[in-house]
Amino acid sequence: MIAQVAVNRLSKNTDKLYDYRIPEELEGKIIIGSSVEVPFGRGDGLCEGFVLGIKSSGSMKELKNISSVHSCGRMFDEKMLELIYWMREKYLCSFIDAIKAVSPQPGKKNGISIRMVRLCLSREEALETAGNIEKKFPAQARVLEEAAGKGDMILSELCSASGCTAGVIRTLAKKGMAEIFTADIYRNPLKGRAVERCSAPPLSSEQQAAYERIKAAVDEERFEEFLLRGVTGSGKTEVFMAVIDEVLRKGQKAVLLVPEISLTQQMIDRFLSRFGERIAVFHSGLSAGERFDEWRRMRDGEADIAIGARSAVFAPFDDIGVIIMDEEHSETYKSENAPRYSTHEVARFRAAQHKAPLVLASATPSVEDYKHALDGEYTLIEMLRRVNERPLPPVEIVDMRRELKEGNKRMFSRLLISEMDKTIKRGEQVILLMNRRGFSTFVSCRNCGYVAECPNCSISLTYHRTGEMLRCHYCGYTVAAPKICPVCASKYIRHFGGGTQRVEAETKQLFPAARILRMDVDTTGTKEAHENILTAFKNREADILIGTQMVAKGLDFENVSLVGVISADTMLHINDYRSSERTFAMLEQVTGRAGRGNVGGRAVVQTYSPDHEAVKIAKLHDYRAFYNQEIAARMAMWYPPFCEIESVQFSGESKNLVMQASRFFARCLEPMRSLKGKIQILGPIEAQIPKIKNKYRWQILIKSENIEVLNEYVLKAQKACLKHRLYKSVTVVIDKNPNSVY
User: Fold this and answer.
1) How far apart are CA 313 and CA 326, in angstroms?
2) What are the phi and psi torsion angles at 512 (to 5°)?
3) 680 near 647, Cβ under 8 Å?
4) How many Cα atoms occupy the beta-carbon half-sphere of 340 within 13 Å?
């Protein structure tokens, strides 16, 4: 038998399948999806590979033998194999890139080899023996009493429970009363998580109507794509749980995707309380071992529900009954690393494979998806009322230009300070959003104009008060903040702009008695940091939660009655066609965190652009009005959903070679202009950030009605560039419908 193997090599030249002979001793052990070791290259060094096909015929004379097969079992099945081939073609990635996306790498150690104990006596025999030896061997008797009828137990836990040493248990083993052995134990991140079980509440009329429409597709095992637009607080999660309950009743599996790790924690608690521990968690906050063990629990049928961020879309379930994408508009659903996949597109492919409905849910759906729904490509379901008819929070817009003119130089408007003071005095809680971390945006000399910049990237350094450091948020470069200007030696060096650290510092000055938590990349770098912060806030151990967009989506705290947006302008004036949409979504989402309980709520939005339509419409909570305005602008400028965009990025250490390579690539694309349909090729031009991590950057943008028809031309240009002797040091990255172009 011959196995077709994709080898784990990053070179484009090895991105193909290699034939290897399956030796007799491994026949039957190697199947599609097996992880194997094979001799590769001139020196026949062992290399990891994955079996993508098996055939019986072919030339066997010159084939090398597969050396071994990994004990971890199958890494993907036939349906996942279809997905691997689809991703390779769709995202122009390699076999290995696609394989690594769909399955975690097994590594050398999986699970934890734990010493276990098993009694060789029945429960009755163990208890009788314990009674007979209690006076002479009390420790042995305690072990028998503790372990009687309990099956396999972890050795260390039995020692602790019985108050004895491992030597006592070894003595029982020598007497034939117990057996000590090792076992591979899954690392379960949910183990020991205490959540009170609860039953499903009655659904509102809107929730029931949404549930019935999705349930019909579940019951008929029919692929159908739904867009569930529900205002913040309308109870979308209860609809998810009702649908998943139906899926589990049918013996199928469910996948629930959330865009942020911070949302995963709250969602897990709600699902644990309803469905118990047959839940697998999948996100970047887990260790590699935990991720692999959670993946194995799903593959081996020990979990029915996968909850997680983007990568959970690859849950290895063999019978999916529904896939749900919560906060479907979030840009985090687009992968920024190879393979640069869209979670939405992968979810659609998998849902169609399994004949299951795909539910996209958001209070602020993406403009593209809402148009598809209005055009009938998706089934549109709308929930326009909050649960228990609670009103959406009123929003006050504060013009910070006027605040400055009237002498207020703080980050906080007088209205926001007043509202925070009232809220805290009432014993209620506040969420403050500042979508920029650090203390200040940049450091500059007021005498000569010097700005502290990263030596590796074409961007200013951000001042972080902790440690008095300047940091680059692209490459991680750090340096001590200067006290005097390094150019003119002036003492007039100042911090400009602001981030979450500065918001925290000013909040402490204004409200010294308030208990404050900050949630951003700097405070959530350790494991379980997200959960610890949110749990503390939920338990009312803090009055104010300050954060970046982590606090803007999906969080549900009944005691939050005030939301303050420190600056609505952080995303508004970025050179990106989605800036208005992202600003509106952020404002609508974060203001919706207020008034979700019985205390009512309101929001204060501070801005230097109070007349911008995205800000004005967010005050009204009118998604349709924003959509109507935005879709007209997209049509006029020929932006998605009326076209697709492909970005080709060039980077390298030589600025001149990067520029030349991009121009060579553009010339290779010229035959593409003869294709039917509208096509625009923009560039090559220098990227908005011309240098990151000491790599110079240029780019080409391609706009087309159907980007897929351009694959042949783009791949041909990429291969020509890689083969050119001058441009081998230039990295060429193709990204379909990128989140941003910078």
Assistant:
1) 12
2) -60, -25
3) no
4) 17
